[in-house]
């Protein structure tokens, strides 16, 4: 009887179904179904009542799970306790992150982290779509607070306060004038963005508790993510007004290639979080990364 099959039974019971359990464990539903069938054949009893709508433990299944779950937890704890005996954590760490994090936050973290932990291989999947990190085969993700799932553990990473900045090329502002209110942007060419699902990005401005939302229109709209830098270059060329993370635009603002627009209305928001499932054993590479961004001792 394989330990993985016992884990499969426990996972299906916790999730109430094969698909949800597969999502949690990062494997296929058919693989879990086969594991449960093996267990039932080996034990000679049915462990779950299966319908098209639910998967519920039988009386035999409940009896097994009552003793099995504490035992599995004890095994996880025992194995995890060995990580502290390693001189340096090893393995692969896969992170799913937004393009903005790859551009603005991780460059100040990743080189030093990899230098500290040479036995860890880091894989970064950068995309702007919100995905299930487990289903995507990742150990953890980075997202903003409003996009975090409730059952995740979240750890702050990077600057805690960020701002959206609005800017335009000096030549454009000299030709059209300086907007004084967000509503004035409706008369300006703007460089917009669109999310993967087709929804256009709305620009938000805030001042003295008043929030103004603008849906920009103009000569260029790019997909949110990897194509954003194209909008930046279009803004520098004087094709339109751009709204983007302040840190992304800072080099252009400091060089004078772009000028700030409506700065009193720039909206602040909370920074990014590293997040991961709280009900799973934390792999040693992920634990090392968490300790590193917290400023803790290596391997602590």
Describe the structure in your own words.
By secondary structure, this protein is of the alpha/beta class. The protein has three domains: 81 residues, Winged helix-like DNA-binding domain superfamily/Winged helix DNA-binding domain (Arc Repressor Mutant, subunit A, Orthogonal Bundle), CATH 1.10.10.10; 91 residues, Periplasmic binding protein-like II (D-Maltodextrin-Binding Protein, domain 2); 109 residues, D-Maltodextrin-Binding Protein, domain 2. The protein is 36% helix and 25% strand. Strands 3, 4, 5, 6, 11, 12 and 13 form a seven-stranded mixed beta sheet that branches. The protein starts with a helix and ends in a 6-residue tail after the last helix. 26% of the residues are buried. The model has no long low-confidence stretch (mean pLDDT 88).
Defining traits:
alpha/beta; 7-stranded mixed beta sheet; 13 strands; D-Maltodextrin-Binding Protein, domain 2; Arc Repressor Mutant, subunit A
What's the structural blueprint in terms of helices and strands?
Elements: H1 3-15, H2 18-25, H3 29-43, E1 48-50, E2 55-57, H4 59-80, E3 91-97, H5 99-104, H6 110-116, E4 120-126, E5 140-144, E6 152-168, H7 170-176, E7 191-194, E8 203-207, E9 210-214, E10 220-223, H8 228-236, E11 242-245, H9 246-255, E12 259-260, E13 268-277, H10 284-294
Parallel strand pairs: 3-4, 3-5, 7-10
Antiparallel strand pairs: 1-2, 5-13, 6-11, 6-12, 6-13, 8-9
Helix pairs in contact: 1-2, 1-3, 1-4, 2-3
């Amino acid at each position: 009887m394989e330990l993985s099959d016992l884990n499969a039974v426990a996972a299906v019971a916790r999730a109430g179904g094969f698909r949800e359990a597969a999502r949690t464990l990062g494997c296929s539903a058919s693989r879990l179904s086969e594991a449960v069938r093996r267990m039932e054949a080996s034990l000679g009893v049915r462990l779950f009542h299966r319908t098209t709508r639910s998967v519920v433990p039988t009386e035999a299944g409940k009896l097994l799970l009552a003793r099995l779950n504490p035992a599995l937890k004890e095994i996880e704890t025992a194995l995890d306790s060995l990580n502290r005996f390693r001189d340096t954590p090893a393995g692969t760490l896969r992170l799913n992150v937004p393009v903005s994090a790859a551009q603005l936050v991780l460059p100040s973290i990743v080189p030093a982290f990899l230098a500290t932990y040479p036995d860890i291989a880091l894989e970064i999947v950068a995309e702007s779509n919100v995905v299930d990190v487990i289903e995507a085969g990742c150990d953890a993700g980075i997202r903003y607070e409003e996009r975090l799932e409730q059952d995740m553990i979240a750890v702050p990473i990077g600057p805690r306060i960020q701002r959206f900045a609005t800017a335009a090329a000096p030549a454009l502002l000299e030709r059209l004038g300086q907007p004084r209110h967000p509503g004035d942007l409706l008369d300006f060419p703007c460089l917009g963005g669109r999310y993967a699902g087709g929804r256009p990005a709305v620009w938000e401005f805030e001042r003295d508790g008043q929030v103004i939302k603008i849906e920009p229109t103009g000569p260029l709209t790019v997909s949110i993510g990897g194509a954003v830098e194209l909008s930046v270059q279009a803004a520098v060329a004087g094709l339109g007004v751009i709204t983007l993370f302040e840190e992304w635009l800072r080099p252009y603002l400091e060089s004078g290639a772009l000028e700030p627009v409506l700065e009193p209305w720039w909206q602040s928001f909370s920074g990014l979080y590293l997040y991961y499932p709280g009900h799973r054993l934390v792999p040693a590479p992920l634990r090392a990364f968490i300790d590193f961004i917290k400023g803790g001792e290596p391997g602590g």
